[in-house]
Structures are given as C-alpha cells and as structure tokens.
Write a structure and sequence with these properties.
This is VOC family protein. Pfam families: Glyoxalase. InterPro entries: Glyas_Bleomycin-R_OHBP_Dase, Glyas_Fos-R_dOase_dom, VOC_core. By secondary structure, the chain is α/β, with parallel strands linked by helices. The protein folds into two domains: 65 residues, 2,3-Dihydroxybiphenyl 1,2-Dioxygenase, domain 1 (Roll), CATH 3.10.180.10; 54 residues, Signal recognition particle alu RNA binding heterodimer, srp9/1, CATH 3.30.720. 20% of the residues lie in helices and 39% in strands. The protein has a four-stranded mixed sheet, with helices on one face. The protein has a four-stranded mixed sheet with strand order 5-8-7-6, with helices on one face. A hairpin with a 2-residue loop joins strand 3 and strand 4.
Length: 122
C-alpha cells in the first residue's frame, strides 16, 4: 500500500512581498494566496515543479518566538540549481561532497531559514 505523502513546509516570513520576490527570482510561482494581490497575503504558497512551500506572515516580535528548522530538499538537478542560483548571489554554502554521502549546497531565505539542496552520491 502506498501512503502518498506530500510535505509542505510553512516558512515564517516578516515581509510577504519580499519573500515572494525572492522565491520568484529562484523560479517559483505563486500557487495560492489568501489575498489579492498575493504580496498582501498573510498566507501564500509558492511552487516550482513538485516542490511547494507555504509562507506565513509573522511580525518581527512573533518570528523571534517561532521555531524554524533547516529544510533539506533532494533533487537530481542540484548542479543546475547551484549554477543558476549562484549567479543570483543567494548561495550561502558552496556545492560540495559531504562525508555523509550527499552532494549539496545551501542558501537562506530573506528571514534566515536555511535550505540545503542535495543529491545522494553513493
């Protein structure tokens, strides 16, 4: 029996317009928003291929008490994404082989949430 799981991480953001612009630069498009235009939304989603991320607006005070985590996203296109996004100046950790068997790079969104994109090497 296949479970058919999908995961949609919810990212705390302090400025929806800034976050939507960031993800748009990385090739994502708005999949839904609770307001129009989406830049005024309190909750919105962005999508690229099969990856959908949800964005929820928090005040600067609220975001200090909200738990965030690093997101690890597996993709066969790790080299292409690295080249494209490195040209945009958003990479914070270089593409490299890791001792745990991944080839990966990292970036942070405008509110500091860390993302690691990787593919397994072995």
């Amino acid at each position: 029996m296949t479970e058919g799981f999908k995961v949609h991480p919810v990212l705390p953001v302090t400025d929806m317009a800034r976050s939507l612009a960031f993800w748009s630069r990385l090739g994502f498009s708005v999949s839904f928003a609770d307001a129009k235009p989406a830049e005024r939304a309190q909750y919105a989603g962005v999508v690229r291929g099969d990856l959908e991320l949800h964005l929820q607006t928090f005040t600067p005070g609220q975001i200090k008490t909200t738990q965030t985590m690093a997101l690890r996203i597996e993709t066969d296109a790790v080299e292409t994404l690295y080249q494209d996004w490195n040209a945009l100046g958003v990479i914070t950790a270089p593409l490299e082989a890791k001792p745990w068997g991944n080839y990966e790079f990292g970036l942070r969104d405008p509110d500091g949430t860390p993302f690691f994109f990787y593919r397994e090497t072995g």
